[in-house]
Amino acid sequence: MIISIDGPAGSGKSTVANILAEKLDFIHFNSGSLYRGITAYILKNNVDLKSIDSTEIKLETKFENNTQQVIVNNEYMTNFLRNNDVSISTPQISIIPKIRQIVDECQRSFCSKNNVVIDGRDIGSYVFPDAEYKFYLDCAVEERARRRYLEETKKNPNISLKEIENQLIKRDETDKAKKIAPLCIPKNAIIIDSTSLSINQVVEDMLKYIKEFKKQA
Length: 217
Fold this sequence. Notes:
Layout: E1 2-6, H1 13-24, E2 27-30, H2 31-44, E3 59-64, E4 67-72, E5 75-76, H3 84-93, H4 97-111, E6 116-120, H5 123-127, E7 133-138, H6 141-155, H7 161-176, E8 190-193, H8 199-216
Parallel strand pairs: 1-6, 1-7, 2-6, 7-8
Antiparallel strand pairs: 3-4, 4-5
């Protein structure tokens, strides 16, 4: 079974997906980790993007001790996923057609064999349009910026709230303008606005919808 959670950057998708998966005894599959893993590999190995189409990229993902590991050309990239340079470069690298194809194939291969909660920006609309349950987690950009600001200041006390808000606005614009699989509300998805909700409230709402769907089925 596949449960997809889409939404803009900073809406809490990964946190919600992780808790929901735990409650359902599913695997939480973070699609963004795959893009970050490939980006980390490209940066670490100074891969020239101009020759990316002729560059061999073997992407694997597996779970070890309940942690999703991302392996690119036999190199474990998990420890580099949250590096600042990776965060900055991932949006640009993720729109490269070859990278999208590699990531999509990896996602579909893994999820076809497991019960998963998978979060991203094009999961229910493009990667798994036939997912059993589809959610779109929305949130006002001001609130997304506030939440991320509280996280980021622990690592970078000099960053400003306005700077983070501008970063999120720019990321939203990039995601919605993609030629392939832009950020959008998937067909038949349940929309949940988390602006005034806690993470646990969002999870409980999703569980209610899932139980209701099961009754109808």
